[in-house]
Write a structure and sequence with these properties.
Elements: E1 17-20, H1 28-37, E2 41-43, E3 52-54, H2 63-71, E4 75-76, H3 78-85, H4 124-131, E5 144-148, H5 152-164, E6 168-170, E7 179-182, H6 192-197, E8 202-203, E9 229-230, E10 236-239, E11 247-254, E12 261-269, E13 281-282, E14 294-298, E15 303-309, E16 319-327, H7 332-335, E17 338-344, E18 352-356, E19 364-373, E20 376-386, H8 390-396
Parallel strand pairs: 1-2, 1-3, 3-4, 5-6, 5-7, 7-8, 9-18
Antiparallel strand pairs: 10-20, 11-15, 11-17, 12-13, 12-16, 14-15, 16-19, 17-18, 19-20
Amino acid sequence: RNPGRLTHGGPLVQGMKVAITGDTRTPRDELTAKAAAAGLNMMSTVSRHTSALVTNAPGSTSAKAQRAAAEGVPTIDEATFLRLLQDVRPGTSHESATPPPRTTSAPTPATPEAPPAPAAPETASTARQAARPVQPAKALSGRRVLVVGGSHPRAAATRTRVTELGGAAAVNLSNSVTDVVALPGGDGDRRMPRIHSLGLPVHDEAWLYAPASAQPAERGTTPAHPAPLTLPRGGVTDLPVTQYTTTWTVTATWAHRTACEVDIVAFGLDGDEQVPGDEDFVFYGATETPGGTVALSADGPTEQSITIDAANLDPAVRKVVIAAAIDGTETFGTVGAIEITAAPGASEAPLAQATLDAATTERTMLLAEMYRRGPSWRLRAVGQGHDYALDDLSRAYGVDIEE
């Protein structure tokens, strides 16, 4: 773990995050290699989590030096850094466990017990069934509702209402849609002819305030898989990791818009909410981490997925944040809602789902985060938008972005 800032006259400690700016007498690559071999995390950017900045120019006006001054990061020169590298103190590993308390008395002999009955062997099917969260029944449980028409704020509020009632808010017209809510202007939606041809019931907003009076849509046979748990914005669910569910796929889908493109990205973060290295940033230009434990894939212009191999992630990675960014000057007010699903493996039925709306001016949006919780993992639906672009979001997580 990052032990924090370098103190005046104190030693370097393994896990400290150190950046270098300006010219050095020792070749930069050699200096970085020495520090990494000693157990330091050499960073290419400066943040509030940086332990020290190495510079031979105290009055430097570089971006790193200015950020260090703003954040109060201590600076040392190259000679001091080389001297401290000769005696780097041990740090605390991410995977270190608290040792059990030492007992001084002799243990009490245990009373013999009959051996427990052997448990039924776990199979892939039973593991997935145990992992599936249980959703309390609500007025729209089991329904998948598509909202058409209306302004962005009004459509977003309507989708939120669908979720509050236990339904899933769809963003595209698919075979799983059971109902349609038409807001003002919805009759002119290009999908309405197909909606009518499918015989889908079309409701106005009032239906969402008395949905129990509506009969379930008749859409043929019973679905092969139970409906996924619908998460509200900020909602959390456990994702148990067993021998059959060590890999999870988070998929994002959105309605097709020709005016802009949406990119899905992922950040593997340590306990300080920073990437351990730039290679822990997965995006369209680097679609997987070196070990392939976090990978990006695309299925057409409106669907992209992040696959996370939880069992083999670097122990330093405590959380994987999944975000969406718009390429260009458009905003999520144009794109509309993004739906995310989480499923075990690469082709299993989703266990959890959320539909997320940003406001009208955001260009990036945090969609979900998958984080360690004891031996298991949890998924949180975030839905937090930012006005700035992907470059600024990446820098906030410690990624070195070239100007």
